[in-house]
Task: structure prediction
Amino acid sequence: MTHYSPTPYHVPVLLSESIDALDVHQGGIYVDVTYGGGGHSDEVLRRLQGSGRLFAFDQDADAIARGLQRHPQAAADEARQGEVLTLVRANFRHLWQWMRYYGIESVDGILADLGVSSHHFDTAERGFSFRSDAPLDMRMNQQSALTAADVVNTYSEHQLTTLFRLYGELRNAHRLASALVRERSKAPIATTRQLAEVAEQQLRAERQKKEMAKVFQALRIEVNGEMEALTTMLAAAARLLRPGGRLVVITYHSLEDRLVKNFLRAGNVEGNVETDFYGHRHAPFDTQRGKVVTPSDDEQQHNSRSRSAKLRVGVKNEDRAS
Result:
């Protein structure tokens, strides 16, 4: 049964299920590549009981600052040696480089809770939600240059069409892109409300709420380079995990879930299974020990963010000579 965090900052999804899958043991080395509100990391720390190490990544300064408040003894990312918990302010695409920086050659488990935290959705000024009027931002890392407003106002009609079709899986992607280009020729589209007002006229009335979420999802993925970052992180995870180590990933939409599923099955995001001369599969992970886990009805009632969540687990196979 998942336990619900008392903090309003972020309610962790599939908490006990994901940490159980991580198979935390004392003295082990683990990485939470999506620290967020710290719910998953806190449970890993509880099970480590002061023995071992946990590296927690987040590119959001708010999340790292909150983590340091909750764990004053945590090592900052500038420190090469620290306490059990080391907080790293970085995108998880840099997982490999940071682990090398800390002198870590292999780890026992890696956890990734993908998507947007409830804190981001609830903080209107970050621009992740269409339910409030705010600057069209959507940057996870506020030091990044590209914002959602930049995308909406500078991408060509063709680029926008491709973006909404690929990352939003919208059937009327071209119509939406055309409408945005027309509107921005009159005045820049600078807020979430402006974007929503243009988009709602192009979306099917019976599916408007779901399709509006896909519009915002597509822009968020583009602004933060989410698919490229996930691909890079998965490749690093396969290199870092020791045989028997666990890769635990919580996904929220079909794009990232398909990518993770393919990687766990085949060792690449395209899902192309490679075999040797004798027909033996070359795959870095064993996924036969567990099926996809979804949140219980009870959790979905308590945490709306969990309703589309899927938990996938891969166990690192013994390294084979290439």
Q: What stands out?
A: The first strand starts at residue 29 and ends at 32. DSSP finds 13 helices and nine strands in the chain. The chain has a mean pLDDT of 88.
